[in-house]
Amino acid sequence: MDRALTLDVVHRFPGGAALQAKADLPLDGGPVTVLFGPSGAGKTTLLRAIAGLDRPDAGTIRFAGETWFGPGIFVPPQRRRVGLLLQDGALFPHLSVAGNVGYGLPRAGRSDRVWEVATRLGIEDLLPRRPAGLSGGERQRVALARALAPSPRLLLLDEPLSALDAPAREALRATLRGTLEAAGAPAIVVTHDRTEALALGDRMVVLCDGAVRQVGPVPEVFGAPADVEVARVVGTENVLPVRLARRAGDGLVAVRAGEVELVALDPGGLSGEAYACIRAEEVILEEPPGAPTSARNVLVGTVVARVDEGPLVRVRLDCGVPLVALVTRPSAERFELVPGRRIAALVKAPAVRLVPREP
C-alpha cells in the first residue's frame, strides 16, 4: 500500500519568521517517522498542518495519493482520519477512561473496540476511572488509546513523553514503540529528545530554522549528518572547523584543525574548508602516548572538566583542539579522569565525518 506523505508547506509566523518544509516521506518504509529538531524549529506547526488543525499560507500536503491541502483545497481534520496525541493528552475530565477512549466512535461495536485497545495498552483496569485520578503515564496511555481507537490512517504524536518524569518516560518508551509497530498505521512522532528519537524512530526528518535539512534512516542521520547545522541539532558534541591538508590514499583524507591533523574518510568533492564532526561516544581514551595508524587518530591532551551523568561520564579535553568524550564510569575511574590528567584520545578515521562548510 502506498502511504507516502508529500509536504511542500509555507507557514508564516508573526514577526516575519516562516516555516518552509519540503519533504517526500515513504511511510511504508517503517512504522515510525521522527520529526526532530530544537524548540522553535516548527515541528508542532508542521504536525498541526498535517492534521488539518492549522491551515498553511501556501503549498501542498498529500497523503496516499490524496491532496489534503493545496490551491483551493482544504480537507477538514475529521475527513483526514488521523489519530492525534498532544503533549498533555487533552483528555476530557468529565468522562471516564472508557468514555475518553470511545469518544467519537460509532455506538455499534464501541464497547468492544474500547476493550480491545485498552487491553493492548494494559489500561483495562482504568476504564471506569476519571483522568484526575490517573498518573502522568496512565493519562498518556489513555490518550494514546483514544488516538488508536478509530483505526486512523496516520498517527501524529506531539512530544508524547515530554510531560512525564524520567522513570515514567523510560517505562512508557518501550511500550509506545511496540504499540506503534502493532498499530497498522504509520506514525509521525515530534520530539527534540535524542534518546527518544533513537528508541522510537525508523526514519528521521530534521527541522532547523523552519526548513527540512535532512531526511533518512535514524542511524544514518545521527551518524552522517548532512551539514553542520544538522550535526549540532542531533547532538554531535565535537564540530571542528578544518581545512583540507592532503589526500592520504586508500579513501582517506587529512585535514587540519589549527595545528592538529586528523585523518578521515574522504567524502569526495572536498576542497578547502569543512567541518569535522565527531560524536563523543566515538572518542576512546587510553594512556598516552598511543600509536597513530592510517585507521585512527591519536590526540594527546589534558582533561579540562568532568561531568558525571549517571552511568556515563562526559569528559572535556584540550588536545590542541577542544574535544568531548563520553565514557563509562568504570573507565573514568580506571584512568582517574580529573582536571589536569594527561590522556590520549583515539578517534578512528570513519568516526570523523566531514561536511562542507557553508559560505
What would you note in describing this structure?
The chain is an alpha+beta fold. It has two domains: about 5-230, Rossmann fold (3-Layer(aba) Sandwich); about 235-355, RNA polymerase II/Efflux pump adaptor protein, barrel-sandwich hybrid domain (OB fold (Dihydrolipoamide Acetyltransferase, E2P)), CATH 2.40.50.100. It has ten helices and 21 strands. A six-stranded mixed beta sheet has the order 7-8-9-3-10-11, with helices on both faces. Strands 2-1-4-5-6 form a five-stranded antiparallel beta sheet, covered by helices on one side. Strand 18 and strand 19 (about 320-330) form a beta hairpin. The chain is globular and about 75 Å long.
Task: Please write out the topology.
Elements: E1 4-12, E2 18-26, E3 32-36, H1 43-51, E4 58-63, E5 66-70, E6 73-74, H2 77-80, E7 82-85, H3 97-101, H4 110-120, H5 136-148, E8 154-158, H6 166-182, E9 187-191, H7 194-200, E10 203-208, E11 211-217, H8 218-223, H9 228-233, E12 238-249, E13 252-257, E14 260-265, E15 273-278, E16 284-286, E17 296-309, E18 312-318, E19 322-328, H10 329-334, E20 342-348, E21 353-356
Parallel strand pairs: 3-9, 3-10, 7-8, 8-9
Antiparallel strand pairs: 1-2, 1-4, 4-5, 5-6, 10-11, 12-13, 12-15, 13-14, 15-21, 16-20, 17-18, 17-20, 18-19
